[in-house]
Amino acid sequence: MSQLKTMKCPNCNAQLIGQNGKYFCDYCNSIIELDNSDRVIRIEKVIKADITKTNIIRDEAKIMEAENERQRLHDRRQREKRKDEPWWAVLLLCIAIIGAFIAIVYILDR
After folding, report:
1. What is the Cα–Cα distance from 70 to 78, expressed in whole angstroms?
2. What is the DSSP string of 14-76?
3. 5-46 belongs to which CATH class?
4. What pLDDT is recorded for position 48?
5. Mean pLDDT in each 10-residue stretch from start to end of the chain (110 residues)?
6. CB atoms within 10 A of CB 18
7. Where are the domains of the chain?
């Protein structure tokens, strides 16, 4: 049966817990292997950066997608607003022309 031992990390001096000569440091992400007399025979850095970098890239892509969707919705609202504007402008122009025509007829009848 293997015995759990508590050791200090040779890289960062953080607490290690492991068994059978293999220890992992959560602080510096190192795997430390010891021989039977507790001498370090190998230290290997675990690269979590690849996983983290992949997650960051995926999250950035989601953020960009959400931002693009927000921009598309904004642009569509702006186009819809502009569609409504000419209708009101034409109506106001017609009212102005009719008003001018009535004014001219009124003045000429005098």
Report:
1. 12
2. -EEEEETTEEEETTTTEEEEE-TTS-EEEEEE---HHHHHHHHHHHHHHHHHHHHHHHHHHHH
3. mainly beta
4. 58
5. 67 80 78 77 64 64 83 90 73 91 86
6. 18
7. 5-46
